[in-house]
Amino acid sequence: MDLPGNCARRDLLPRDDRPARARPHDPRRPQVVCRTDPCEFPPGPRRRRDPDRCLRPHACSARVGSPIAMSRSPSPARLRSLALEHQGLAGKRKFGTALAGVERALNQIGHAQIDTISVVARAHHHILYNRVNRYDESLLNRLVKSRRAFEYWAHAAAYLPMRDYRFVLPMMRGVARGEWGWWHHGADARARAWVLDRIRAEGPLFARDFENPDKRRSGWWDWKPAKRALEHLFREGELMC
To answer: What is the pTM assigned to this prediction?
Structure first.
């Protein structure tokens, strides 16, 4: 006969296969410590029980799907609270102020998607304004210039914490090898070399700083050669914003 997992003192068990008989309680005998309820998580308070009672199996079992286990699942309200807390939207702004607050917020939420939609301000500034005290729109650029954050693709273009830079290196190398087909399409080698030469000579440039030899445009993705070259160089890690 095996003693239940939460009990000790195996020497109290009979040495033969005969069923144990209940013995009268003797206050001088050592007591075995058992959990009040082995199904509790976290474990509940411990109390002393008679060792004879410990020989009997516990009445409850925390098997997956049992009513006891299911009754301890977090409530929807608790799950909502945890989600808001993790996103930094529960209660007062907890990430601090200014540049350090922006860095802590990015590290916590993982990224801030860059979006050109602008009513009051561009969308990525709304994300941080609601989490960081004394937020200013210049803080993101300062964070990038100090190499504590960078721009790249998460599920879309985003600001990411620098600690995650290593995770985008495989994508950059794949783009450089031509493994990401639609990104590689239309990136002319001569245009890329020309763009890189100008940036090395003149410093950071915008796409609008490069002229378009063909003034006609046929759609949203009808980029000029310099724009395609800039995007490709950015995605393969040769240039950073």
So the answer is: 0.63
Nearest one of 225, 235, 171, 168 to 198, comparing CA atoms: 225
The tens place of each residue's pLDDT in the chain, 241 residues long, gives: 444 444 444 444 444 444 455 556 565 655 544 444 444 434 444 444 444 444 444 444 444 444 544 457 889 999 998 888 888 888 777 888 889 999 999 999 999 999 877 788 888 999 999 899 889 999 999 999 999 999 998 888 999 999 999 999 999 998 888 887 665 555 688 888 999 999 999 999 998 899 887 766 666 667 888 888 998 899 999 998 7
d(CA 86, CA 114): 21
Distance CA 109, CA 122 (A): 18
Strands 157-161 and 112-113: antiparallel
Q: What's the CA gap between 232 and 159, in Å, rounded? A: 18
Long-range contacts of 122-126 (CB under 8 A, 24+ apart): 124/158, 124/159
The span from the CA of 106 to the CA of 168, in Å, is: 16
Please report, as a single letter, which amino acid is at residue 91: G
Length of the chain: 241
